Amino acid sequence: MMLEQETLYDRAKREYSSKLTEGCSRIPSVQVTVQAKGDGLPPLPMGWALKTIKKKVRFTKKQAEFLTDQFQKGEQSGRKSDPQEVSKALSLARDQAMERRFQPGEVLTSQQISGFFSRLSAKKRLEVTAAGNEAKASEVSEVGMESADEDEISAEAESHLSAVCANVMKEVAIQHPIVSFDLNICELVQKRTLRTLRADRLRDMCIDLGLDISDISSQKRKKPYIARLTQLVQECTCTSK
Q1: How many Å apart are CA 228 and CA 54, to the nearest integer?
Q2: What is this structure's pTM?
Q3: In sequence order, what are the residues at sequence separation of 6 or more whose Cβ sits closer than 8 angstroms to the Cβ of residue 20?
Q4: N or C, which end of the chain is more exposed by having fewer CB within 10 Å?
Q5: What is the pLDDT of residues 179-192, one digit of tens each?
Q6: Is the peptide bond before 43 cis (omega within 30 degrees of 0)?
């Protein structure tokens, strides 16, 4: 006997009983579609993760003047300038019109500044040594002139003066070993293994050692850079012995 008004609950029970009776009960399957999420960015080019070597550039006159001024201030105050602080000062420097003195591409790294300071320090030591030896040579010459006749200098003074001049030349000469980027350039030249290095590496060595390479037009050829480094080693004390 059917009820006059079938509720939703009664209908659900009846249909469930019918499914069990017919043996058609089953678990419905749910299909899930996974859609790749894209951020709209273009694909990265091949080799984007490879490490690149930033080529060094020669310091401009403005950069060299700023770094020299910072170095001299450190020498006068007795507190040597920190390359990292100098690098920050480069980025913050302003002129009288409150404009940036150096564009972002002109700001040097602490490593570049440290190398520049090292060359200034070596140059200063060389100048002090040469000046001191010249003063000694002048004193010896004056003593020799006072004790000698008006027409000749004593043999002892001449010998002493020659020895002092020889010491000056020895100290001014390039000392062995010549090192750049932790590589012994003298040894590389003697073993003729400079050609195993890349052209950009040889160029960086020339710049690090203060060699003039402005006349080298092709930056991909090794031969001009090897010639400059070889010429420098020929002036080293290890070659002149």
Answers
A1: 22
A2: 0.33
A3: none
A4: N
A5: 887 788 888 888 88
A6: no
Determine the Cα–Cα distance for residues 13 and 22; give it in Å rounded to an integer: 14
pLDDT at residue 165 tops 70: no
Let me know if 196 is exposed, middle or buried by CB neighbors in 10 A (0-12, 13-18, 19+): exposed
Helix (H, G, I), strand (E, B), or coil: what is residue 216?
coil
| Residue located via tokens 């419905």 | 28
Residues 165/137, Cβ–Cβ less than 8 Å: yes
Instruction: Kindly state the average pLDDT of the residues 71-98.
Output: 85
SS (H, E, C) 68-137: HHHHHHHHHHCCCCCHHHHHHHHHHCECCCCCECCCHHHCCCHHHHHHHHHHHHHHHHHHHHHHHHHHHH
* Cβ neighbours, 10 Å, residue 100: 14
d(CA 108, CA 89): 10
